[in-house]
Design goal:
By secondary structure, the chain is α+β, with helices and mostly antiparallel strands. It is built from five helices and four strands, in the order H-H-E-H-E-H-E-E-H. The longest helix has 13 residues, at 89-101.
Length: 141
Amino acid sequence: MRYIFTFLEIIAIALIISGCEKSDKNNPQTLENAERQLDQIGSSDQKATISDAQIVVYGRPSCSRCVNIMKELDRNNIAYNFYNTDENKQRNHEMLCYVKKFRLEKNGSVGLPVVVINTDQKEYAYSNPAFYEIHNLLKNQ
């Protein structure tokens, strides 16, 4: 059993909990962006992605499921943008539009995170997905 987090995991979690994501439309904050800002990832060490799909994670920095999905995306070198739906009403409305479009609401509620994936051929959306769903979609596109 692992008792000690790596330094980068601790920094990333601290940044998420402290609400490091900004509501700047042109520069959404992600764990990877935060790490780069702290000089933990140099420009020569940029991660390659397994897909050209655009991925957006809508959620809250205090949501453990949101944090976990972002950690898995980072661990697997999958680029994404995170939008805090509590701080940005426009992003919250955007997320709710996807919820309606893809009928993600169950029993009057929506599980966070809401993950939207845009590929060249199609758009997908998930409410509180398991990471393997995202990974399998990206591998098979």
